Amino acid sequence: MNIAVLGGRFDPPHIWHFWTAQQILENVKDIDQVWYMPDFQNAFMPIVAAPYQRVEMLHYLETGRIKLSSIALAKETVTYTVSVVSDLIKDISNRYFWIVGSDITYEFTRWRDFHKLSRMITFLVMPRKDYPIKNLPQGFQRVEGNLMLSNVSSTIIRSRINKGLTVSGLVFPEVENYIRKHNLYR
After folding, report:
1. pLDDT tens digits, residue range 114-139?
2. Residue 63 in contact with residue 26, Cβ under 8 Å?
3. Rounded Cα gap, residues 132 and 75, in angstroms
4. Model's pTM, two decimal places?
5. Which of 68, 98, 138, 145 would you call most buried, defined as having the most Cβ atoms within 10 angstroms of its Cβ?
6. Which domains, and CATH codes, for the chain?
């Protein structure tokens, strides 16, 4: 099976996480599934919601071919992509790809063992609004097709919630209800 992994903080998961996964399935040949893989802790930015809360919210974004993986969470330490990929590629029954937004191509050299990582797995680069794709590093492949682009981010959503502004349409209604019920991001 060919599995594309979308890793990250998912703090909170939002509509664009869903549409990124959906567009990968629609536009990248032979991808069977997309897995959301939330970090336990992120190497660059703090995470606000607890791991179990982000998992509960991510379940609302799952479909038959879009699934949740807790591989990175199980490590209970800072999530380094190179470590996760090392574990994934031990499973030779599947072929894995790593999904990133075009904004990541500008900072990829900050990632732990980035040279090694780009030889271990193919990166699928999803264009993001305001982050044009120029020169891609070795091992990176641009996602092509009639794609919808966005600049929706968890940072924007957390900021809007903190200011008391609506996030309707930016997150699934179930995620919005969960955030409100658990008083997250205030």
Report:
1. 999 999 999 999 999 888 998 898 89
2. no
3. 34
4. 0.96
5. 98
6. 2-181 (3.40.50.620)
How many residues comprise the chain?
Answer: 186
Four-point Cα dihedral 8, 13, 17, 22, nearest 10: 120
The runs of H, that is alpha helices, within 75-153 are 81-88, 114-120
Q: In whole angstroms, how far apart are CA 41 and each of 49, 74, 86, 93?
A: 11, 11, 18, 28
Report the C-alpha gap between 183 and 154 in whole angstroms. Answer: 16
Task: Measure CA 61 to chain center.
Answer: 12
d(CA 62, CA 34): 10
178, two tokens: 């969960």
User: Rounded to a whole number, what is the distance in angstroms from the first to the last CA of the chain?
Assistant: 41
Instruction: Give the integer Cα–Cα distance in Å for 77 and 57.
Output: 21
